[in-house]
Amino acid sequence: MEVINTIGRRKCAVARIYMKPGTGVITCNNREYKEYFNTGTLQYVVTQPFEILKIQGTFDIKANLDGGGITGQAEALRLAISRALCEINAENRPPLKALGLMKRDPRMVERKKPGQKKARKKFQFSKR
């Protein structure tokens, strides 16, 4: 099997991954993923597709992460890994799809409007 290349996005974050058979090494921007994502929650998010399919430690991943924040990058990486696993074997799709890992999360930050404090917050109204 050759190297599989997929992309995942979340908010403004983009994750481009290269997946190949190996020992389970996940590298993010030339750093180990546990060093890059230093909280346990984000580390779980990254490895979630492997845990659902019970195939931990079977693929090496090299990821290039760009844009957004740390949470958006972790969720973009999760989507890219899920897509790559479906490309390897079509039978992986139903369990991942049932838990919502195959869907690109469309929620983005709403823009600030002119004449307002923030996206939805307004300046205090004064009658007199």
Written description of the protein model:
The structure is a single chain. The protein is an alpha+beta fold and 128 residues long. The chain has one domain (4-98): Ribosomal Protein S5, domain 2 (2-Layer Sandwich). 34% of the residues lie in helices and 23% in strands. The chain has helices spanning 33-36, 40-53, 70-88, 93-98, and strands at 4-10, 13-21, 26-28, 31-32, 59-66. The protein has a 5-stranded mixed sheet with strand order 1-2-5-3-4. α2 runs parallel beside α3 (70-88).
Give a topology summary:
Blueprint (H helix, E strand, L loop, with lengths): L3 E7 L2 E9 L4 E3 L2 E2 H4 L3 H14 L5 E8 L3 H19 L4 H6 L30
Parallel strand pairs: 3-5
Antiparallel strand pairs: 1-2, 2-5, 3-4
Helix pairs in contact: 2-3
In short:
The chain is α+β, with helices and mostly antiparallel strands. It contains 4 helices and 5 strands.
Assign the CATH architecture: 2-Layer Sandwich
Radius of gyration: 18 Å
The secondary-structure element order is EEEEHHEHH
CATH topology: Ribosomal Protein S5, domain 2
Largest sheet: 5 strands, mixed
Query: Which overall shape is indicated by the principal axes computed on the Cα atoms?
Result: elongated
Tally the structural domains: 1
Helix/strand-derived category reads: alpha+beta
- Which residues sit in consecutive blocks of at least 5 with pLDDT less than 50? none
What is the helix fraction of residues, given as a range? 25-40%
Summed up, the helix count is 4
**Briefly, what CATH class?**
Alpha Beta
Strand content: 15-25%
Care to count the β-strands? 5
> How far apart, in Å, are the first and last alpha carbons?
73 Å
